[in-house]
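Next up, a chain.

===
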Amino acid sequence: MKEAMFEELKESIRQAGAIRRGQLKPAKITQYPEPNVKKIRNQLDLSQSQFATLLGISIGTLQGWEQERRKPQGPARVLLQIAEKHPEVVFEVNQMKYQTKAS
């Protein structure tokens, strides 16, 4: 590793430590809003059972999200974003899934 790159890396580690200790403010903070699961489900005009089936999750998981006892993570968050912005895609993929099972 070149000396300049090594020094830059050391400085970034020092800055990270200072941020963690509250001695320095981060230059940038990225926050992603929590999906409003109940609102998304209501926009699609689906029951909890129908929405859970559409997403491939249990009703208990859906209820936990809607009551904000749990938060969707990783791929589930992305799937909810797709369901909110492009519901036709979720319906289309789900229909293809069921057609494949029947074949």
In short: The chain has a mean pLDDT of 89. Residues 41 and 47 are 7 Å apart (CA to CA). The two ends are 57 Å apart (CA to CA). The first helix runs from residue 3 to 20.
